[in-house]
């Protein structure tokens, strides 16, 4: 009796150790609503996470179809990393409800909203759809300021440790490394972008208040008559007239924007139009978060030279 | 790592009663357990220390935000702190859909019929002139950590109102399982689960009208299971009262309807996505009455008792360049229906004509539609839909002497153009040539508005 018992125990122990060692190598699954958060999650989680990007830089994150592929991805996710502030209100709630995954429902540790960790700009003082596509929590396009990315990284590293405590040390080490590289990059970008301070710009969508805040740019007009409303010829003519009194240095749009409105205005006014990557993957050079801001600043500087 | 204490405990428990165990073995195990415990405790204290560090870092980060911003930081706190304290802070999301219609119909809608198909539910093009189309009030929210629920109240053109949906759905079940109960639109087909305001045409496809009385809603229970596969694959089953066509309300225990369905879908590259499904609906109508005109041109009321089984195949394919449909996009969608009904048909239940007569009835009928919607510039879309039904085989037995049988194939073309200035408003113009009735061509023109107020409704694929 003695020997079989011991063997069973040993087998059990061996199985348990095997299970544990597998658990420590197992990857967590992260669904990022936008590519910038996918890139950040990958920076922090390294090979401990499998990151699925729900959208690309060429898509408007306000308007995404709740496609079957996205539902399937969310179903197995341990963590969703989204912007929040109602940016994804038109599609994420459907994905969450149809996924049947309790771990990533709002309020659960598996639901991470980046915009909760930064100070938001353009918080509306009145809520009325007559004002267009208004976000009650403030402008959601927080990723255009690298300092925001840094704040979100701090919170996301903690969240990763909470979701996957077995690898907490790994995430913290990666975060420490990322934070140091990010801080020095911000200092470099600050220096590079100094000549942009005070420049007036026109934007297609109100997608850049955080960039403007960071670099000291002044927004004089938007091509969209109201947020989320396509540019109309009447409104573009008004902007053209306005620009005669308040000249701007450039017309800025995101990679996913239709280029016709800015091209038309650029041709009429002689003000150069600039397409910014807006997020990771928005241009050839914006391959990661560092490339995103390298390229953004390079493109802005190019037209002011 | 966190599994180790329970493991040690389990081991200790398992070992407790074993008296035959040799003393030296026990001693050895005690030592091992002690070693495990010590290692666990040291890791725990290590983790605690790290947590403290992390907390300190958060505080620092929050302070940094506070310094960076002139106004107080929003970190970790909801932005709108005003209404949070009010009693109505937990009010559900309310959305109101206002819809109205102007219809110009060349044929009197009161005589509307789909030749060869037993009618039921809401069929036909509605009223002539201005009318209120289906306007809906929806109220939805999480009930508690385990349930989500809502009510969708529809106001009909004739000033009646009905609860289209009033359901609860689980939110905390694991492994992709969801259970819905109450009143809801069945998950069969593609279009059936969608509310009228998300349709691409003014009216439901002819096949939906002929086989489901417009849309299949029922009181019952639904289970959906999303499989843990990379490819989207969802299975579903429903059991219900079967109160609506093709079922009928009946005073009986048990189930009046049952459905099974499976849906799958995915992406092809970054510009294409698709979904396809197969569904089955079984109902057992009792005394399902309908109005008809018999071979002697007398209006009569007939009744069907028996079984109705419907197969339904659906697919949809969507295209948008790089998945960005802002400027242009295209959607192709089609569904195919096949229904077998067998049972007893009672002709002229009220003896308005030659007198009541009951005999066997058996039918195998099919139909479907194919539609394409193209957004050719921002806010503007055009769409074309082709509907076709096949009367198939209808065996009236001896009632063939009372009721007409034909091999006519009802069909319909619909062409629409709509303008969507924002995601909350839409105006649509639709022309249709409706040949649902043998010998009659109904030319239809509709002008429709659809506006939604309140909570932002997210739409399914």
Helix fraction of chain A, binned, reads 40-55%
CATH superfamily of the largest domain in chain B: Porin
Structural class of chain B: mainly beta
Main beta-sheet annotation of chain B: 16 strands, antiparallel, barrel
Give the H and E element order of chain B.
Answer: HHEEEEEEHEEEEEEEEEEEE
Low-confidence parts of chain B, pLDDT < 50 over ≥5 residues?
1-21, 63-84
Overall, the morphology of chain B is globular
CATH C-level class of the largest domain in chain A: Alpha Beta
Strand content of chain B: over 45%
What structural class do helix, strand and pairing data of chain A support? Answer: alpha/beta
- Count the domains of chain A: 2
Oligomer: heterodimer
The CATH architecture name of the largest domain in chain A reads 3-Layer(aba) Sandwich
The portion of residues forming beta strands of chain A comes to 5-15%
Give the mean pLDDT of chain B: 86
Query: H/E series of chain A, N to C?
Result: HEHEHEHEHHEHEHEHEH
CATH class of the largest domain in chain B: Mainly Beta
Write down the Rg of chain A. Answer: 23 Å
Give the rounded overall mean pLDDT of chain A: 91
User: Which of globular, elongated, flat, extended, rod-shaped describes the shape of chain A?
Assistant: globular
Unreliable residue runs of chain A: 1-5, 15-24
Task: Describe the model.
- Chain A has helices at residues 2-25, 35-45, 68-75, 92-99, 146-163, 168-192, 209-215, 233-245, 260-269, 289-304; strands at 28-32, 49-53, 79-82, 111-113, 200-203, 218-222, 250-254, 273-276.
- In chain A, 46% of the residues lie in helices and 11% in strands.
- Chain A is of the alpha/beta class and 305 residues long.
- Chain A has 10 helices and 8 strands.
- Chain A has a 4-stranded parallel sheet, covered by helices on one side. Chain A has a 4-stranded parallel sheet with strand order 6-5-7-8, with helices on both faces.
- Chain A has 2 domains: 25-119 and 126-189, Rossmann fold, CATH 3.40.50; 194-304, Nitrogenase molybdenum iron protein domain (Rossmann fold), CATH 3.40.50.1980.
- In chain A, α2 packs across α5 (146-163), α3 packs across α4 and α6 packs parallel to α10 (289-304).
- Chain B has 461 residues and is mainly β.
- Chain B folds into 2 domains: 4-68; 95-454, Beta Barrel (Porin), CATH 2.40.160.10.
- Chain B is 14% helix and 47% strand.
- Chain B is built from 3 helices and 18 strands.
- Chain B has helices at residues 4-15, 23-68, 206-212, and strands at residues 93-105, 129-132, 135-142, 147-155, 161-170, 177-185, 217-226, 232-240, 257-268, 272-283, 288-293, 299-319, 329-347, 357-377, 380-395, 411-422, 425-435, 442-454.
- Chain B has a 16-stranded antiparallel barrel with strand order 1-3-4-5-6-7-8-9-10-12-13-14-15-16-17-18.
- In chain B, β5 and β6 form a beta hairpin.
- In chain B, α1 (4-15) runs antiparallel to α2 (23-68).
- The radius of gyration of chain B is 30 Å and the shape is globular.
- The two termini of chain B are 41 Å apart.
- The model of chain B is unreliable at 1-21 and 63-84 (pLDDT under 50).
């Amino acid at each position: 009796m003695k020997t079989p018992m011991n063997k069973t125990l040993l087998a059990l122990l061996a199985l348990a150790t095997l299970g544990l060692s597998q658990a420590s190598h197992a990857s967590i699954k992260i669904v990022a609503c936008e590519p910038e958060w996918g890139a950040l999650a990958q920076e922090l989680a390294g090979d401990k996470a499998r990151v699925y990007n729900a959208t690309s830089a060429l898509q408007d994150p306000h308007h995404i179809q709740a496609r079957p592929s996205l539902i399937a991805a969310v179903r197995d996710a341990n963590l969703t990393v989204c912007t929040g502030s109602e940016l994804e209100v038109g599609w994420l709630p459907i994905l969450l409800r149809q996924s049947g995954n309790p771990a990533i429902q709002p309020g659960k540790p598996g639901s991470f909203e980046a915009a909760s960790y930064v100070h938001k700009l353009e918080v509306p003082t009145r809520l009325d759809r007559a004002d267009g596509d208004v976000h009650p929590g403030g402008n959601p396009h927080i990723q255009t300021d690298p300092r925001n990315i840094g704040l979100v990284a701090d919170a996301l590293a903690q969240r990763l440790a909470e979701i996957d405590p077995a690898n907490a040390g790994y995430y913290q080490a990666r975060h420490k490394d990322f934070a140091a590289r990010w801080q020095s990059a911000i200092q470099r970008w600050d220096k590079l972008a100094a000549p942009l301070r005070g420049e007036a710009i026109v934007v297609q969508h109100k997608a850049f208040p955080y960039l403007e805040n960071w670099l000291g740019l002044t927004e004089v007009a938007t091509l969209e008559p109201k947020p989320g409303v396509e540019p109309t010829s009447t409104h573009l003519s008004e902007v053209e007239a306005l620009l005669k009194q308040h000249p701007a240095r450039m017309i800025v749009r995101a990679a996913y924007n239709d280029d016709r409105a800015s091209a038309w205005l650029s041709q009429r006014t002689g003000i150069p139009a600039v397409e910014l990557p807006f997020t990771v993957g928005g241009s050839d050079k914006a391959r990661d978060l560092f490339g995103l801001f390298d390229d953004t600043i390079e493109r802005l500087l190019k037209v002011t030279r | 790592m966190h599994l180790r204490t329970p493991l040690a405990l389990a081991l200790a428990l398992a070992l407790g009663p074993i008296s035959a165990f040799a003393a030296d073995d026990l001693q050895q195990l005690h030592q091992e357990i002690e070693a495990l415990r010590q290692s666990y405790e040291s890791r725990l204290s290590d983790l605690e220390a790290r947590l403290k560090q992390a907390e300190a870092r958060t505080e620092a980060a929050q302070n940094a935000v506070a310094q960076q911003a002139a106004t107080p930081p929003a970190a970790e706190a909801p932005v709108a702190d005003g209404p949070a304290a009010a009693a109505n802070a937990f009010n559900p999301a309310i959305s109101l859909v206002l819809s109205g219609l102007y219809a110009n119909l060349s044929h009197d809608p009161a005589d509307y019929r789909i030749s060869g198909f037993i009618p039921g539910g809401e069929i036909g093009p509605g009223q002539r002139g201005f009318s209120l189309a289906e306007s809906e009030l929806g109220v939805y929210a999480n009930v508690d950590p385990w349930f989500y629920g809502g009510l969708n109240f529809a106001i009909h053109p004739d000033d009646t109102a009905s609860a289209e949906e009033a359901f609860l759905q689980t939110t905390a079940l694991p492994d992709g399982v969801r259970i819905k109960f109450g009143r809801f639109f069945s998950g069969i087909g593609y279009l059936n689960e969608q509310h009228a305001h998300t349709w691409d045409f003014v009216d439901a496809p002819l096949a939906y009208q002929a086989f489901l009385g417009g849309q299949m809603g029922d009181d019952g229970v639904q289970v959906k299971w999303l499989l843990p596969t990379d490819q989207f694959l969802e299975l579903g089953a429903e059991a219900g009262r079967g109160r609506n066509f093709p079922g009928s309300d009946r005073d009986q225990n048990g189930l009046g309807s049952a459905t099974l369905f499976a849906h799958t879908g995915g992406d092809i590259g970054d510009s294409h996505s698709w979904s396809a499904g197969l569904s089955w609906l079984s109902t057992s109508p009792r005394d399902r009455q309908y109005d008809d005109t018999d071979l002697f041109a007398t209006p009569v009321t007939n009744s069907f008792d028996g079984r109705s089984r419907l197969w339904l195949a659906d697919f949809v394919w969507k295209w948008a360049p790089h998945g960005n449909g802002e400027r242009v996009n295209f959607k192709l969608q089609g569904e195919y229906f096949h229904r077998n009904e067998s049972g007893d048909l009672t002709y002229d239940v009220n003896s308005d004509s030659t007198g009541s007569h009951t005999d066997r009835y058996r039918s195998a009928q099919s139909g479907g539609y194919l539609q394409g919607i193209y957004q050719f510039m921002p806010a503007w879309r055009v769409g074309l839909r082709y509907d076709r039904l096949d009367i198939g085989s209808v065996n009236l037995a001896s009632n063939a002497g009372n009721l007409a049988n034909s091999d006519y194939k009802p069909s319909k073309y619909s062409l629409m153009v709509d303008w969507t200035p924002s995601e909350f408003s839409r105006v649509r113009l639709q022309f249709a040539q409706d040949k649902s009735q043998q010998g009659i061509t109904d030319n239809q023109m509709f002008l429709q508005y659809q506006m939604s107020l309140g909570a932002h409704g997210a739409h399914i694929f």
